[in-house]
Recover the amino acids of this structure.
């Protein structure tokens, strides 16, 4: 158990609270993160974002003097271990808040247990089913329908392609849903989807599909897969002879540093959707990037930004929960968060039906840099 | 488009054949279901990548990767399989030892790459495609096909024209008899595992280059396809591995090109089932174990 | 202390489930059938139980036996094409079956929920239920082991031709092993579905296949306690190694290699062999008749 | 009522392993089958017992045609066998090897076995006692609980014979049963095989040890390069010019 006692301030407060002022307490937060296994990439980035977030919260003392003790444990992208961790956090470590997994499948299997044990759980998983019919579970991101509305409208209203091909990773629920939502909205606005092949995330050779797409020569190509696979797909399709001015549109995964590094110039002119615009859209975003780079020696990406935002939501909930926060008061406070500051979207976030709602922005790549796309 | 897809299928087939060649030597010759072979292939890609990032030219990276995985494969045999060989009925035990080794290698790669997918730097290989009979061929596709053909001929020459090759085939058909005739099994195992590792490393770097993605779990899909190729072609048969590899490549590509992509796996694996019903020992396989039920 | 138990209760439940999967894999290996189809049948059992429990709203008391029957039927069906295959060919053919099941579960979205799988399956399985199911299966396998069926399975594993030459039908007993394995896999697939709230295709893939196989071979392939011990090792090991966090896989791998080298026949069978070698008992059958023959 | 092999032939890609072989074993009679090494004796046994496919000719057991039956079918028709190189279940005990032969005679149902009902347990005890009795017949009782592979070669042979007889066969094919046994042990086997014959079991004895064959068999077939070259009483065989030529070479 990588016990992460964060900075001298935390332990000092611990000693202080036990003897002196009653109300400054230590809030325990347990994180079940995918540090190994198939989702290790996303899990590690998210966990690092949370770590930096909690460090910032503790350093800024604005949670009525309370501090957060963070416990990050590896669930190896495995359902059994995730459930065991949740149980251990809730019953043995008596945590105040559990941070669930970034994979929807794991989140869906531990959410019912969190509800049963009445411990607040926040997750960056995308599936709305995680919160439906439950009171104790929160999502750090909006519903896919609301999230992907902006890029779908942008495609239909601004880019105005006639024919499109959409390619999605059929073995990952997040990408299947992203692709379906985008397709539904653009179809309603008159764009014709001429083909919808799917791949497996473990595939690396896309020549066959690339040839099939080049043969169709669509006006636009929509991708819903991991950053590296998207880059790989774009490169292989272009080398299979894709018409250079075909619009290439993606989701949150193509608004990441990974995608830019992996795709190189093939990323030029592609459109994507960002929780987080690199460089940060506000002061807090810039401090996050500086703190992250100082701690891990590399620029943060979309997933770490969401992790940081998750930590902020927890911090703000603790602050709003007043003195001596309990699981119940934190839950109530979190449910009522309205227009609080964050680093994702356009800087403000509200909790609507236990889902964090924020304005997503469409980005494009201009000479290797992610910038806000014109005409939003 | 059919011609282009057939060519793509051939190249993918060459990739599968290349991977299966090394696998065939261990799984085919010694009947060891070596689940670590996918991990050795992945380590080859990583070693190739790290040599390039250290500034070495590409051909040096290939050599280093091949020698590294060759020695790694020999070490795995020495540490994990040889102690088990002495205990007689060790077919299952070796399978589990290979699972253990695979877990170790995957974990090391995960830690080294921080679970990230890496790629060769841009421009290390010319990307501009050239046209032949109206088909678009990228240099890498050509290199893969050429390397596959080269490896098959070299391996065939080694197996069927050299004395070492004869000894390997003798061990493959009946190890005890071969030993009685003075074949030194330790030498044979050393060789087959080295060559198998070498080919896996070569395939690793080549595939890492061609599809520009190297990560800790890239071995598994190729391991599964490698099993299908070997069983389809028939254990221990070099010809089988090549024919089945190419056939699998073409069938998979055509099914992706012309059928809903969700059916690819179903088509490929059902095909394997169908072939095994007709030929219980694969297309060219020698009777690994006679089916007792019917008269032979 | 109670809290300690509750905190680790899921671990015990998952151990019981894994022991069930391991027993399903064990029974075919013991009969000399090198099949790794268990994971595919578990998936079918889990999905059919999930459909029965969630869509039809029936209780686990109906879903579990139903899935066991479905598993039995799938096992029997599988034994027909696999009857003529042996060794690695049989193993890879069943591996193909597992991959087909996963691909179908991914593709048949309306029925199985595709990549997202089936969620919010009403949880109706408790630790007690799992203990009872495991005890029931262990009793059955124990009685079978002590009966002629166990002796025949051991004979088939060692030398089919000898069993055949004594008039024992090879294909019948192989089909029996497949059916038993399928029934156990189906039953525990249903129990898993009824416990884990949500199921999806990836869960029943290559990783579960290797872990279940490792549990049986690590634990032991002959005694019925082998798979149970093996399942315990494979379930509790990641938890015990938790301090290593991301490096746990390394320890798992190392341990697999080391244990299998020192106990190639598995922990339980290895220990039994040690004990048996020490206690070589000579038997005296009713003395008077044996004297008579030896002239 | 006999084990009849008529006109059986089988070739392996040009090599005529068996050419138009005919022989007959009646219940309670011991018939010898001799011939130089490589004459095709074991191949003939494999043809009769269902291991190898028969190209031409038929094999029948008490009138029932078993030409196309598998090893299981032939065994169930009442033909049992031992193997040229002993094949015992190496991981099982001597007792377990013999009880395997008796498995077919248990009548408890699969359900009894599965639920561990008394019927199954009674069967097991009865089978164990019968096996002990058979082991006593071959003088192997005190090795009952030993692992089969740990026994001396001669003892392993006896266990294999005990297992073959446990099936209560009508006919039994003994493939070099006393190979590797010294004269004393071989002598004991004569007694045993005669007791089998007295019980009405027909025996086809494939053996090199001529003293052993002459002591037991009333009729002997001589096989060479897949063909029966002579058949008659031991006396007639020993003078037949063809036999001498076959053994000593022209």
């Amino acid at each position: 158990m990588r016990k992460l006692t964060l900075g001298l301030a935390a332990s000092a407060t611990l000693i202080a609270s036990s003897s002196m002022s009653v109300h400054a307490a230590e809030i325990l937060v347990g994180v079940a993160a995918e540090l190994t296994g198939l989702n290790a990439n996303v899990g590690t980035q998210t966990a690092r974002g949370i770590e930096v977030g909690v460090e910032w919260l503790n350093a800024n003392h604005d949670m009525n003097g309370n501090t957060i003790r963070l416990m990050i444990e590896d669930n190896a992208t495995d359902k059994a271990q995730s459930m065991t961790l949740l149980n251990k956090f809730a019953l043995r470590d008596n945590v105040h808040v559990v941070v669930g997994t970034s994979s929807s499948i794991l989140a869906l299997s531990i959410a019912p247990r969190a509800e049963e044990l009445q411990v607040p759980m926040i997750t960056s998983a995308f599936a709305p089913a995680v919160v439906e019919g439950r009171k104790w579970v929160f999502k750090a991101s909006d519903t896919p329908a609301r999230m992907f509305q902006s890029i779908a409208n942008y495609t239909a209203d601004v880019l105005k392609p006639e024919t499109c091909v959409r390619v999605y990773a059929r073995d990952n629920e997040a990408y299947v849903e992203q692709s379906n939502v985008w397709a539904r909205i653009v179809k309603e606005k008159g764009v014709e989807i001429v083909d919808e092949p799917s791949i497996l995330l473990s595939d690396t050779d896309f020549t066959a599909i690339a040839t099939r797409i080049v043969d169709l020569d669509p006006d636009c190509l929509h991708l819903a897969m991991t950053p590296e696979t998207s880059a790989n797909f774009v490169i292989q399709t272009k080398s299979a002879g894709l018409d250079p001015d075909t619009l290439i549109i993606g989701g949150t995964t193509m608004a990441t540093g990974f995608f830019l590094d992996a795709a190189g110039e093939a990323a030029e002119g592609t459109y994507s959707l960002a929780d987080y615009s690199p460089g940060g859209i506000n002061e807090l975003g810039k401090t996050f990037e500086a703190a992250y780079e100082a701690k891990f020696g590399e620029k943060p990406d979309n997933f770490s930004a969401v992790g940081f935002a998750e930590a902020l939501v927890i911090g703000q909930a603790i602050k709003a929960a007043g003195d001596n926060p309990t699981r119940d008061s934190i839950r109530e406070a979190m449910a009522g968060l309205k227009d609080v500051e964050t680093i994702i979207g356009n800087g403000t976030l509200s909790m609507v039906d236990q889902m964090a709602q924020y304005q997503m922005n469409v980005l494009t790549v201009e000479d290797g840099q992610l910038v806000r796309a014109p005409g939003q | 488009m059919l011609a282009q897809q057939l060519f793509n299928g051939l190249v993918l087939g060459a990739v599968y054949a290349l991977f299966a060649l090394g696998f065939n030597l261990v799984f085919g010759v010694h009947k060891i279901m070596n689940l670590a072979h996918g991990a050795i292939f992945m380590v080859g890609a990583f070693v190739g990548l790290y040599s390039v990032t250290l500034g070495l030219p590409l051909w040096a990276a290939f050599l280093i990767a091949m020698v590294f995985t060759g020695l790694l494969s020999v070490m795995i045999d020495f540490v994990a399989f040889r102690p088990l060989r002495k205990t007689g009925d060790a077919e299952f035990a070796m399978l589990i030892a290979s699972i253990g080794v695979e877990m170790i290698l995957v974990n090391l790669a995960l830690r080294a790459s921080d679970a990230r997918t890496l790629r060769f730097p841009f421009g290390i290989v010319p990307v501009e495609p050239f046209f032949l009979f109206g088909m678009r061929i990228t240099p890498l596709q050509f290199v893969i096909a050429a390397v596959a053909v080269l490896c098959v001929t070299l391996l065939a020459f080694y197996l069927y024209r050299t004395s070492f090759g004869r000894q390997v085939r003798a061990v493959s058909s009946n190890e005890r008899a071969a030993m009685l005739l003075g074949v030194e099994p330790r030498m044979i195992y050393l060789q087959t595992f080295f060559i198998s590792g070498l080919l896996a490393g070569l395939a690793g770097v080549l595939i890492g280059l061609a599809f520009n993605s190297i990560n800790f779990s890239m071995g598994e899909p190729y391991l599964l396809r490698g099993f299908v190729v070997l069983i389809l072609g028939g254990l221990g048969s070099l010809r089988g591995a090549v024919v089945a590899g190419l056939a699998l490549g073409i069938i998979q590509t055509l099914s992706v090109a012309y059928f809903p992509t969700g059916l690819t796996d179903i088509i490929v694996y059902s095909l394997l089932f169908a072939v095994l019903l007709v030929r219980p020992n694969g297309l060219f396989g020698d009777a690994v174990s006679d089916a007792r039920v019917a008269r032979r | 202390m109670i809290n300690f138990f509750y905190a680790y209760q899921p671990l015990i439940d998952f151990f019981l489930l894994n022991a069930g999967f391991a027993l399903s894999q064990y029974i075919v290996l013991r009969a000399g059938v090198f099949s790794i189809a268990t994971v595919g049948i578990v998936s079918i059992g889990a999905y059919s139980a999930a459909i029965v429990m969630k869509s039809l709203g029936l209780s686990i008391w109906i879903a579990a036996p139903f899935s066991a029957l479905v598993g039995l039927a799938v096992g029997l069906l599988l034994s027909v094409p696999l009857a003529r295959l042996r060794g690695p060919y049989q193993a890879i053919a069943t591996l193909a079956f597992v991959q087909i099941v996963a691909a179908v579960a991914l593709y048949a979205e309306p029925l199985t929920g595709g990549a997202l799988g089936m969620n919010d399956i009403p949880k109706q399985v408790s630790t007690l239920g799992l203990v009872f199911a495991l005890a029931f299966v262990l009793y059955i396998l124990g009685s079978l082991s002590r009966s002629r069926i166990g002796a025949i399975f051991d004979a088939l594993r060692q030398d089919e031709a000898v069993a055949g030459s004594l008039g024992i039908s090879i294909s019948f007993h192989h089909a029996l092993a497949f059916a038993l394995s399928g029934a156990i896999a189906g039953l525990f697939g249903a129990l898993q579905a009824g416990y884990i709230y949500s199921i999806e295709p990836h869960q029943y893939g290559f990783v579960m296949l290797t872990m279940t196989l490792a549990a049986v071979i690590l634990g032991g392939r002959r005694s019925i306690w082998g798979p149970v011990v093996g399942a315990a090792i494979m379930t509790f090991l990641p938890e015990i190694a938790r301090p290593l966090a991301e490096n746990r896989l390394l320890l798992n791998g190392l341990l697999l290699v080391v244990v299998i080298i020192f106990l190639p026949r598995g922990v339980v069978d290895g220990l039994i062999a040690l004990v048996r070698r020490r206690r070589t008992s000579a038997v005296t059958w009713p003395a008077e008749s044996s004297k008579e023959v030896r002239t | 009522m006999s084990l009849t092999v008529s006109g059986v032939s089988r070739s392996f890609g040009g090599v005529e392993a068996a050419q138009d072989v005919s022989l007959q074993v009646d219940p309670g009679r011991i018939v010898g089958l001799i011939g130089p090494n490589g004459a095709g004796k074991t191949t003939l046994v494999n043809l009769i017992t269902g291991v190898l496919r028969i190209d031409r000719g038929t094999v029948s057991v008490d009138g029932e045609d078993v030409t196309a039956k598998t090893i299981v079918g032939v065994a169930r028709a009442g033909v049992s066998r031992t193997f040229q190189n002993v094949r015992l279940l190496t991981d099982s005990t001597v007792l377990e090897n013999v009880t395997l032969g008796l498995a077919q005679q248990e009548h408890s149902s699969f359900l009894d076995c599965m639920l561990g009902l008394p019927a199954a347990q009674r069967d097991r005890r009865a089978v164990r006692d019968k096996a002990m009795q058979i082991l006593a017949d071959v003088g192997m009782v005190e090795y009952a609980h030993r692992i089969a592979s740990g026994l001396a070669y001669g003892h392993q042979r006896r266990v294999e014979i005990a297992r073959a007889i446990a099936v209560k066969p009508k006919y039994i094919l003994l493939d070099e049963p006393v190979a590797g046994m010294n004269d004393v042990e071989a002598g004991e086997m004569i007694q045993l095989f005669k007791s089998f014959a007295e019980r009405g079991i027909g025996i086809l004895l494939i053996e090199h040890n001529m003293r052993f064959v002459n002591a037991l068999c009333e009729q002997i077939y001589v096989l060479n390069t897949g063909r029966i070259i002579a058949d008659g009483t031991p006396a007639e065989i020993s003078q037949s010019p063809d036999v001498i030529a076959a053994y000593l070479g022209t």
About this structure: The mean pLDDT of chain D is 89. The first strand of chain D starts at residue 3 and ends at 12. Chain D touches chain C through 51 residues (CB under 8 Å).
